[in-house]
Amino acid sequence: MKRILLLVLAFTMVLSLCAYVPAALAADVQPFVWLLPGNEPEDNAMVLAEINKRMQEDGVALELKTVFIPWDVWDERLNVMLATGEEFDAFHVMQDRVKISTYYGREALAPVTQYMEEFGQNIKAVIPDDILALGQIHGEIFGVPVMFRDFAYTDEPIGCQVQYWEELGLDFPPKDLDQLFEQMTQIAAAYPDENFWVPTRVNQLSNTALQRSFDSYPFVTIEDLFLVDQNCAASAYLYTDEFKQTADVFRWLYQNNFIHPDLLTMPVTQRNNMVADGQWAFNFKHVLTDAAKIKVNKPDAKLDEIVFKPEEPRFRGIRVVNNYNVASSTSDDPSKLIKFFNWVYAKQENLDLLLLGIEGVHWEETGPREYRIIGAEAPKYNLGDGYLLSNYNFARMRQTDDPRLASYWLAFDSDAVNSVAAGFNFDPTPVLTEYQNCLAEVEANVYPIKYGLLPMEGNYDAMISRMKTAGYDAVVAEFQKQFEAYAVEAGLK
pTM for this structure? Predict the structure, then answer.
């Protein structure tokens, strides 16, 4: 039955790709097929025609074809296409969902190092060499990093709806986690008819804002398997006090009705709707980027963000860069990825067109690095507010955006500290079976404990036993071996 399902999905994707193949191309023009998560914008065909016209006028012999895969089936369909060898040129990677190293282990990536040198001059002009190096594995580049925001300003804040604090006369910002939870108890009691579920992400990124409050911070957790501190010590995260402390926090939240009982199974869209509906008072995540959506449902919402230990420098954990556009191993010519993005980053107008649509039709400039959408509230064309391809050298803010977002999108904080693991990409190939088993165990048995649905007592030892059976110790040993070599080579030790 599973084989039949895979064949059906593969056939479905073949049909979708066929819809994107042009009837005829000039002899020297190559199709460039790019897979993206989400739904196709209403005016996508109109914008593609303009992009291709301008590219070819600029001497770039490519014909862009975008294939959109809905969020809730993105991972599944992409995996099927890769497993069946479906031919396409590039796809988007979100390291908070699946890391580049995981795709590398699946032999899904094509190296583009030589093409970056030959065709990537504009890319290198807007993406520093040390950032390009972050996506390397064994010295090879596999994609183009998307520097669309400064994660020092998005991963560490805790977003809050401050009106609840103000209405009850509570001190804001809370000075630490204990005070925050004490205040949340008071807020929930004062508003018994409202839900205050924390719409947390179910992955490693839910850790950062919370763990900044820990005495041992800064450190990073990677795939909820590994922990690396700033002394270059790599360890098994699930054995650490930091994991246990995180699980204890979420257990308190769950027991006090701040964690939705379906957190682990709800679709991404449902969690996003919880954020937009304002069914929360705080979240382990930045919120200013969601302000417009939230205010549609809660126009009186007053949004702010807090960062524990504000006197200490901001810290970029594993996400100095989170998003990449990578060359698929199924591409007939991986150089197309570099040629395309070299055109995108050649000038402001090119990125504006790809990201925002046609100026005067879909958007208009309202000031330096500022724009507004023309017409309806929902844009007829927009590629994900920048995370798919933007770069802070070209980024724009909406006219209605909170001015505080400038520190997210328009600059990188030179005083922020990067994790020592930021440039390290684990190659799981030597322990691939064990690694894949461990990732499956994290989903099935670690997350119910980490996110508080099950107590540590009576469950932790059994979970660790399953992880050991899956090969966790071997995976950690291989990670430590590779990270040690990386740290020595990078001059960190």
Answer: 0.75
